[in-house]
Amino acid sequence: MKTASKLAVLTVLVLLLAEAHISVAVTCSPIQLSPCLGAITSNSPPSRLCCSKIKEQKPCLCNYLKNPTLRNYVNSPGARKVASTCGVPYPKC
């Protein structure tokens, strides 16, 4: 294969890979939200780590709401405030 042809193929591959969206599976673990506990139970603002974790765990929130042990925390006004502050819409399950 000529150098120009190799370069063209390489360029197309790079463009295709740049357009590909890689999805990473989230492991649902409510313990991941522990950095948010203080902000949920008090008036303190959520930390960057809390917001990062709540965004990461967003796909899991409906499962947490279905869990009787977690429902009261996830459905609390404090949790709603933290989600809103972090820019995570409260789930409609």
Can you characterise this structure?
19% of the residues are buried. The protein has six helices and no strands. It is globular, with a radius of gyration of 20 Å. With 93 residues, it is mainly alpha-helical. It has helices spanning 3-19, 37-41, 48-56, 61-66, 68-74, 77-85.
How confident is the prediction overall: mean pLDDT? 80
Overall number of strands: 0
User: Radius of gyration in whole Å, from Cα?
Assistant: 20 Å
The percent range for helix content is 55-70%
3D shape:
globular
Q: DSSP helix count?
A: 6
Structural category:
mainly alpha
Oligomer: single chain
Measured by DSSP, the beta-strand proportion falls in: under 5%
**What are the low-pLDDT stretches, counting only 5+ consecutive residues below 50?**
4-23
The first-to-last residue Cα distance is 55 Å
Instruction: Name the helix and strand elements from N-terminus to C-terminus, one letter apiece.
Output: HHHHHH
Largest beta-sheet characterization: none
Annotate the secondary structure layout.
Layout: H1 3-19, H2 37-41, H3 48-56, H4 61-66, H5 68-74, H6 77-85
In a nutshell, what does this entry contain?
With 93 residues, the chain is an all-alpha fold. It has helices spanning 3-19, 37-41, 48-56, 61-66, 68-74, 77-85.
Keywords:
93 residues; mainly alpha
